[in-house]
Amino acid sequence: RTVYVNGQYLPEQEASVSVFDRGFLFADGVYEVTSVLGGKLIDFAGHARRLQRSLGELEMRSPVEEDELLEIHRELVRLNEIEDGLVYLQVTRGAPADRDFAYPPEDTEPTIVLFTQSKPGLAESPAAKTGIKVVTIPDARWARRDIKTVQLLYASMGKMMAKKAGVDDAWMVEEGQITEGTSNNAYIVKDGKIITRELSTDILHGITRAAVLRMAQEAQMQVEERGFTPEEAKEADEAFVTSASTFVMPVVEIDGTPLGDGTPGPIAKRLREIYLEESRKVAI
Ligand code: PMP
Q1: Using an 8 Å Cβ cutoff, are 35 and 86 in contact?
Q2: What's the CA gap between 284 and 41, in Å, rounded?
Q3: pLDDT averages per 10-residue partition of the chain, 284 residues
Q4: Are strands 169-174 and 40-41 parallel, antiparallel or unpaired?
Q5: For ligand 1, is residue 169 a contact (CB within 6 Å)?
């Protein structure tokens, strides 16, 4: 596989980052994941915009302009012959001479790394046909979840808690309400209305979330942005999650309670179709 590191396209075995890199020592870095369908990038502009926002919130310098970033994404997709899959991008505050909590001098070069992952048939995932099962767990993350940092340890722990419980993923709960999934935004549907937590620093502002809510409104579906409790979720007609790599994924069970008849709901299925169709049309 060919990867991109600080201006160079290299075989993955030859690519490296300093042991003093702040991404490694402090999780002082941000990332994006953009999916690829039919060799084209899904919502690149949305991901590029959120990257700038994350960098801005951390007073971190952007290593490349948006047009160059697009070129790097496209070149990696081409070089690695990605038909369906994703492009991972990470930017860190670079590798100063020594470990120090304070940010390094302004002229420290940021580190930028991109690589691809091939996932043939990404849009035809079998999980989308059966739906996934989730458990609820406490949300023990830091308080700036709107910044897409590489500090993902609690998300990993959450996935492991789900695995141990014999299910697919976890929904996190804070002050009695669901925040989001470990790596996705969470939704329930009740009496035809789509309910999802409003944007704040409590959740990641999903690029897929923004697109799906816009498409739902265009399709005359009702949307309400507010928090909801695990109890309300278990009484919902259906549920789903969204993320760049899973699109719209139906949720069929929460904490052992099946939703409706325990199969993917009609609104989740319809939104998945609309999202994939519309996104492919404008992919670049
Ligand atoms: N919330 C969290 C915590 C995530 O990690 C992700 C995916 N990285 C999302 C939501 C979904 O965001 P997006 O639709 O931009 O992939």
Answers
A1: yes
A2: 5
A3: 98 98 98 98 98 98 95 98 98 97 96 98 96 98 98 98 98 98 98 98 98 98 98 98 98 97 98 98 97
A4: unpaired
A5: no
pLDDT of residue 250: 98
- Boundaries of every domain in the chain: 2-121, 126-281
Ligand 1 atom closest to residue 244's alpha carbon, by position in its atom list: 16
Q: What is the DSSP letter of 184?
A: B
Cβ–Cβ contacts within 10 Å for residue 262, how many? 12
Architecture category of domain 2-121 in CATH:
2-Layer Sandwich (3.30)
pLDDT score, position 72: 98
Per the DSSP assignment, residues forming a β-bridge with 2 are 11
Residue 252 backbone zone (phi > 0: left; psi -120 to 50: alpha; other: beta): alpha
Q: Residue 93 in contact with residue 103, Cβ under 8 Å?
A: yes
Mutate which of 134, 171, 185 for ligand 1? The one with the most ligand atoms within 8 Å of its CB, which is 185
Rounded distance from Cα 97 to ligand 1 centre (Å): 33
β-strand partners of 33: 88
Residue 82 pLDDT = 98
Question: Could you tell me if 241 and 194 are in contact, meaning their C-beta atoms sit under 8 angstroms apart?
Answer: no
Name the residue with tokens 């084209």.
Answer: 40
Q: Domain 126-281 adopts which CATH fold?
A: D-amino Acid Aminotransferase; Chain A, domain 2 (3.20.10)
The amino acid that residue 188 corresponds to is I
Give the pLDDT confidence score for residue 101 in this predicted structure.
98
Task: Tell me how far apart the alpha carbons of residues 264 and 149 are, in angstroms, rounded to a whole number.
Answer: 31
Rounded CA separation 260/7 (Å): 51
